[in-house]
Amino acid sequence: MKKIFMTALLLMTTIFAGCGGSTQDKTSAPEKNSSTEKSSVEKTADTNSSGKKILVLYFSRTGEEYNVGNITKGNTAIVADLIAQKLNADKFEIKAAKPYPDSYEACTDIAKKELESNARPAFEKNIDNLAQYDTVFIGFPIWWGAVPRVLLTFLEANDLGGKTIIPFCTHGGSGLAGTEREIAEACPNSTVRDGLAIVGKQAQVAPEAVDKQVDAWLKNLGY
Question: How does DSSP assign 103-131, residue by residue?
Fold first, then answer.
């Protein structure tokens, strides 16, 4: 019985540390986002070495993290900070209008239901100056092998046409899990480049290793 319980627990971990599972087809109409409030980006610096205006846009989660404990800074937020610092880029955090539960299990349940119904949960505030950016790094945790639905709400509510989009994610074993395709579908008039996948737990317990992975990825991208 103990062996069966541990096997089931391990399977749940792989599915949702950023939730790596199978991506499901879209089945229902999106919910209209109710937020009209605008919010400015967090400025890291005025210029960057590429000469282009860069934004790091991300959704992250705090609370109970499997096999880590309660975290006060999300895994994806940690990676987003690294990218913004290295590129002297601006940052903007996407927040759900109705925050996800701190409980790991409760959050996984909601994320699964949102994916199965292809929901579009509302986000808290929109960005007020997206048009000025040439390149947008988009970060998120992998939830059930997919992009969190609230991130899709945000992308579909904003025009990223003509921009270069570079995804990055934190996960529990799934890698990018086809999310580059999801983002490309949500932003059909943008150029989507190769993304980065970081094991979520590493952001908390192995920051030096994550820093090296981000450096190598940015170098391959030409930054």
Answer: SHHHHHHHHHHHHHTT----BS-EES-GG
Q: Which CATH class is domain 2-221?
A: alpha beta
CA angle 74, 188, 152 (to 5 degrees): 30
pLDDT reported for residue 104 = 94
Domain boundaries, the chain: 2-221
What DSSP character marks residue 139?
E
The full length of the chain comes to 223
Estimate the share of the chain in helix, then strand, then coil, as percent rounded to the nearest 5: 35, 20, 45
Q: What percent of the chain has pLDDT over 70?
A: 77
Q: How many whole angstroms separate alpha carbon 72 and alpha carbon 61?
A: 9
Question: Is pTM beyond 0.85 here?
Answer: no
**pLDDT score for 50:** 52
Cα dihedral 30, 192, 142, 53 sign: negative
